[in-house]
């Protein structure tokens, strides 16, 4: 039975439970989680409920860790400062897999407008947003709730909606982008691409390579910008904003608002990534862990649901995703030796992205599939 509206879905979930039918019913509304909230839902539908209780795993970290914040100011003017920053980037990438950067040269008004533009899109009338709603990941602009909605290994649907925009290497024409965030998406993407290439230089140096090494490998060739919208949740202890996962790219640059909820698994404890005005979060992706042969770590992270909302974040993925490609990525030969053998088999970005998408956010690392 097709479901034409969110109200119809709400009526359905109050009856008997058939998970696949309810997933289809939810998807057919094309209204996402926001549609449920707008319909006045007061209980979390069963498709979103985690199979195990979250109370224990959500408890605050007992050990007080200081999340790494790296100030990039003056890096091009002082060789000593430059080396200090490279050392900090390397250390954070080896131990945390995450760090924040400040004084990154992206103006604060640009960051604020990107958050506001993302918010504007999700606040559009549902009939306007429906034209972008699709599960065809070959499209350059995709509005969807849970890319892995139908993955059989994913335990529960997440409490978030997303807008995926492929901004490089083949960016959309301006007309293809939603008017609510069109101009800022293009401006923000230019800034982030410049920052990403610079970060790859620092990461290359941290590996003892020429600064241009990772860029010459085309690690910054692709950029996909994901706007995430996490509505306020009536029972946040039952569901997750994003399940535990690591990212399927080279690096991710994340802009988050003031609400918080992003957590990193560090020393087997969940540590909050504190929202810091003007800062950007950077994390190592699976593909960079693969080519660095485990020198840099792609660390598991998650996003909690919250009674306060909506929470807005913008995640910038440096990879080409499912675009056709023949380029193979394996452990960088300059890093290998008799004592540091390759730990992974080579893969194309497309193969890795497709496997990750098929597997979904099931709580396991896609890297295991490529281990030698």
Summing up helix and strand content along with how strands pair, one would put the structural category as alpha+beta
Strand order of the largest sheet: 1-2-10-7-12-5-4-3
Strand percentage = 15-25%
**Strand tally, please?**
12
The chain-level mean pLDDT equals: 93
CATH topology title: Jelly Rolls
Quaternary structure = single chain
Proper CATH architecture: Sandwich
CATH class: Mainly Beta
Going by CATH, the homologous superfamily would be B-lactam Antibiotic, Isopenicillin N Synthase, Chain
Provide the helix percentage: 25-40%
Which residues sit in consecutive blocks of at least 5 with pLDDT less than 50?
55-59
Radius of gyration based on Cα positions: 20 Å
Give the terminus-to-terminus CA distance.
46 Å
What is the total number of structural domains? 1
Q: What is the N-to-C order of secondary-structure elements (H for helix, E for strand)?
A: HHHHEHEHHEEHHEEEEEEHEEH
- The shape is globular
Number of helices: 11
In this structure, how is the largest beta sheet organized? 8 strands, mixed
Organism: Capsicum baccatum (Peruvian pepper)
Keywords: Iron, Metal-binding, Oxidoreductase, Vitamin C
Domain Fe2OG dioxygenase: 219-321
Protein name: 1-aminocyclopropane-1-carboxylate oxidase-like protein 3
